[in-house]
TrEMBL record:
Keyword 4Fe-4S: yes
Keyword rRNA-binding: no
UniProt xrefs under InterPro entries: FAD/NAD-bd_sf, HdrA-like
Gene3D superfamilies, sorted: FAD/NAD(P)-binding domain
The entry's keywords: 4Fe-4S, Iron, Iron-sulfur, Metal-binding, Oxidoreductase
Pfam families xrefs: FAD_oxidored
Source lineage: Bacteria, Pseudomonadati, Pseudomonadota, Alphaproteobacteria, Hyphomicrobiales
Protein name: FAD-dependent oxidoreductase
GO molecular function: 4 iron, 4 sulfur cluster binding; metal ion binding; oxidoreductase activity
Annotated organism of origin: Rhizobium johnstonii (strain DSM 114642 / LMG 32736 / 3841) (Rhizobium leguminosarum bv. viciae)
Length: 443
């Protein structure tokens, strides 16, 4: 089988399937694994616990990945990170028990888990098309993909393809119907180029933020004044900043590029340029305006701008805000989550839920069917491109749920290959049994 994309969902899918004895090839466009964990410099991993922080919901491969990073000295266990700490950007709601980690540890842990499971890595390779048997228009079947890399174009066939590209690339090339953005105007969440800074006086930053509880977001009053005077370089109401495990080094999630389609190369290019200019301007702003940042230096910027939202497949089931709000039970549940709605305003500086007053329950469920395209056979779509509304996706798009979904997709794909049945016909009882055997928690 083939897994496309080596981010949280792809690496979990590949490891889960390979451990069931299936031959797995993982195709990744960069020269290392991790996706947003590494190339995006995104972190910390948001909560893997219930919203109230009382129960760890996402275990299995995610927990093992965290333990592997810890053994490398590159992560702190989420059970030790309370809401409101500097590691979670001083945010309380939805931020209890996040996982701080170092991207270099993530790269090593990811590749070791894949190699030890027997996954064949095909790095520096971009999938540019899908091979589809569509002689029966009512029952199209994905047979493989076309890749571009050193050596040119090549086709790679597989019994099952798991699309973990985050943009639903394979699904899109195969003709699966996809949706993008919010219902009202099709606009997606903004993009952000993550960067890290060094030489920050950690104690001064913490002391200032703790002394200003009326600032709902860190440094909000300083940002508000600068915004009113036209001096703040991004549409944001505060500074998104996350302490790392290295003294003086913080991740910055503050830039914001609006109205660019992350699944279009030209628009993505414009977003990269704008994101980099924002980074330069933000650094100057930090140095001149933020206590503790007087001597700040740029450590690095992400390999690519972070894309929060692009295509979502039209799947056998579309997860909704109402499902999350009610904690609806599904007969084919494959993941439990507690991260709440998290919609960054597609048109401006707002944050918040955007869920018309509704938010997710303390624990909610995700069914297997969100990964099954409505008609195409031979294909599963996991991670950020699953079938969910704009609102529901805002919660389940963060990295721990993507690990859980990836693991479920990998197990289902392996069962599908083993039984010579399409992923649509995988027996849920088998899927559940294997997921539990691999350490997943399903309630
Ligand atoms: C700005 C920003 C901030 C965020 N903040 C957080 C946070 O603090 N904590 C958190 O937990 N989550 C956060 N998220 C969400 C999270 O990072 C992503 O939603 C999550 O990583 C999605 O996982 P994935 O496996 O679906 O995709 P990705 O992590 O995007 O991985 C996809 C992989 O597929 C590869 N790929 C893509 N297309 C192709 C192709 N055609 N051929 C070959 N390879 C391909 C990519 O190179 C990449 O390695 C944030 C996201 C953004 C953008």
């Amino acid at each position: 089988m083939l897994v496309i994309g080596g981010g949280p969902s792809g690496l979990s899918a590949a490891v889960a399937a390979a451990r069931l004895g299936v031959r797995v090839r993982l195709v990744e466009r960069y020269g290392f694994l991790g996706g947003n964990l590494t190339a995006g410099l995104v972190g910390p991993c948001m909560t893997s616990y219930s919203l109230d922080g009382s129960q760890q919901l996402i275990r299995g491969i995610y927990e093992e990945f965290v333990q592997r990073m810890m053994a490398l000295g590159g992560a702190l266990h989420p059970s030790t990170i309370p809401a409101g700490s500097a590691y979670c950007g001083f945010i309380v709601y939805g931020h209890d028990k996040v996982t701080p980690f170092q991207p270099e540890a993530a790269k090593v842990a990811a590749q070791r888990m894949c190699i030890e499971a027997g996954v064949e890595l095909l790095l520096h390779t971009m999938v540019v098309d899908a091979i589809v048997d569509d002689r029966d228009a009512d029952n199209p079947r994905v047979l493989g993909v076309v890749c571009a890399g050193k050596g040119g174009l090549r086709s790679v066939r597989a019994k099952v393809v798991v699309d973990c590209s985050a943009d639903g690339d394979v699904a899109h090339y195969a003709g699966v119907h996809t949706r993008q953005g919010r219902e009202s105007d099709g606009l997606s969440q903004p993009q952000t180029l993550f960067f890290r800074v060094q030489n920050v006086d950690d104690q001064v930053v913490e002391d200032y933020i703790r002394a200003h509880p009326q600032d709902f977001r860190p440094f909000a009053s300083i940002v508000a004044k600068a915004t009113a005077e036209g001096r703040f370089p991004a549409p944001r109401r505060g500074i998104g900043l996350y302490k790392t495990m290295e003294p003086g080094v913080w991740r910055i999630n503050t830039g914001r590029v609006l109205r660019r389609n992350g699944a279009d190369a030209l628009e993505l290019s414009l977003a990269e340029v704008e994101g980099r200019e924002q980074t330069v301007a933000l650094l100057d702003f930090f140095r001149d305006n933020l206590p503790g940042f007087e001597q700040v230096e740029l450590r690095d910027t992400a390999t690519q701008i972070g894309v929060r939202e692009t295509r979502r497949i039209d799947g056998a089931y579309e997860l909704t805000l109402q499902d999350l709000h009610s904690g609806r039970a599904f007969e084919d549940v494959v993941a439990l989550c507690g991260y709440p709605l998290d919609i960054h305003d597609p048109t401006g500086s707002g944050g918040g839920t955007g869920g018309e007053g509704l938010d997710a329950a303390n624990i909610y469920q995700i069914p297997y069917r969100v990964m099954l395209p409505r008609v195409h056979e031979g294909l599963l779509v996991s991670g950020r491109a699953v079938s969910a509304t704009h609102e529901a996706l805002s919660a389940i798009r963060v990295m721990p749920p993507c690990f859980a979904l990836g693991q479920a997709a990998g197990v289902a794909a392996a069962l599908s290959v083993g039984n010579r049945a399409s992923p649509r016909h995988v027996d849920y009882a088998d899927l559940r049994r294997e997921l539990l055997a691999q350490g997943a928690y399903l309630g």
